[in-house]
Specification:
Radius of gyration: 15 Å
Structural class: mainly alpha
Largest sheet: none
Helix content: 55-70%
Number of domains: 1
Low-confidence stretches: 118-128
Shape: globular
Number of helices: 6
Number of strands: 0
Distance between the termini: 41 Å
Oligomer: single chain
Order of helices and strands: HHHHHH
Length: about 130
């Protein structure tokens, strides 16, 4: 089935619809560099292009950040910024919901194109 280039992908739809929340959620553990990277991802996905490897790497990195994958690495900014987050802060629940919905959008995208997104590039992680 040919791809409809006028219809945005599930990932693009989710990211663009939740751009402010995703940007705020990414800044908390990642800092200002991650904010710029997330805004660039939103801009790129808002054009509704076909999903490229670069966009997949950026989504992988955003998913890693929201899932707190690198908070145990003392050489990364996420460790320092994570230590400052109050677990009782309501934004923690919002980050968890955004992560779940991002994963659901990526799974829906994978069903459409028939390719899993588990292929990760370790260099795609958000770094300060």
């Amino acid at each position: 089935m040919p791809k409809d280039y006028f219809m945005p992908s599930p990932c693009a739809s989710f990211v663009v619809a939740n751009c402010a929340a995703l940007t705020c959620a990414a800044v908390l553990p990642g800092g200002p560099d991650v904010e710029r990277r997330t805004k660039r991802l939103v801009d790129d996905l808002s054009l509704a292009p076909p999903m490229t490897r670069r966009l997949r790497r950026e989504l992988d990195a955003l998913e890693d950040l929201l899932s707190l994958r690198h908070v145990n690495d003392p050489d990364r900014i996420e460790a320092e910024r994570f230590a400052q987050i109050d677990p009782e802060n309501p934004v923690v629940v919002q980050i968890c919901l955004l992560l779940e919905n991002l994963r659901a959008a990526r799974a829906a995208e994978d069903c459409l194109i028939g390719q899993p997104h588990q292929l990760r590039n370790p260099r795609g992680a958000f770094r300060a």
